Amino acid sequence: MMKISALLVSMSVVMTGGCSTTKLPPTNAYTISIATIKDKPVEQTTSNKIIRVGMPTSTAAIMSRNILYQDRHHSLNAYAFSKWSDTPNRMLANLFLTSIGDSAIFKVALPADSRGKSDYILESSLQQFHQRINADDTSTASVRIGFYLIETKTGVVKDAREFMSTEEVTSINANGGVEALNRAALSINAKLLEWLASLKL
After folding, report:
1. Over the chain (201 residues), what is each successive 10-residue block's mean pLDDT?
2. Which CATH number fits domain 46-199: 3.40.50.2000, 3.40.50.10610, 3.10.560.10, 3.40.630.30?
3. CA dist list (Å): 22 to 53, 79, 81, 154
């Protein structure tokens, strides 16, 4: 019995020592920038309508803080020690809400959880939001989103569009992927504003 106790103590010391010497690198947090959305203003007339901007829906894999990449074998993976500061769904909703509000296409742009009444709601489906690593060691980042403008009172879909943007990745790592995804997101944001302005609501 004493031998067994001594063995357990020895194993405990070894395991504790091993855990105490393991030091993991810090996790980097990335976000989607909204600082450049006013670089190319859109021509539009101000509407007296109010719009509510919903949070994009997506698959469970996208709706997480993981920074995703697809390898040459079509396997979807997440970068270690690198995360989004929030889910892409929430960050994109903030981007769209801010840019629509700044554009003055609508009188007011409300967040999804606002108690205020709106004339329209902008729903969206986030279908792609990841980096792709190709067989020739090149890499691209793709964002694909479907938008649906719905009349709040009637539930009628006023119009719908799908936008996709693909950007080259300069470095095949989390930092390169995030930079390209930011460019793709801002490109889609610009297309969204152009589309909404063209409706002349």
Report:
1. 37 40 82 66 70 98 96 90 97 96 93 97 98 92 98 97 97 96 97 94 88
2. 3.40.50.10610
3. 45, 20, 15, 59
